[in-house]
Amino acid sequence: MKQLIFAVINRHDVTEETLEALSDAGFNGTVIASSSLRKTIANGGEIPMFINLASVENPRYEGNTTIYIVTEEEKVEEVLDIIRDKTAHFTLSDGGMFVVPLEKFEGSF
Length: 109
Description:
A five-stranded antiparallel β-sheet has the order 3-2-4-1-5. About 30% of the residues lie in helices and about 30% in strands. By secondary structure, it is of the alpha+beta class. The chain contains three helices and five strands, in the order βαβαββαβ.
């Protein structure tokens, strides 16, 4: 069964290292420059832009970075371990991550 991993990281140097490590391990996904609800409201509701993981040239976004990765259930811990390692279990960066089982998935990652 496929699983969807969401990770939110708010420090740019940690984000860059995490993306590189995930890519080096053969994982692909989508990266979205994101913002907290409070910050978005404080900035007049401006919506952050969307970008693809493969085309990240300068990941120094304002605010957070949200990473979405779809992978097989048996590879989830590998992805989570990479993120844990690069964020030092989120002591180097605010944020968090969670996994959602996918009942149905079409396409390729």
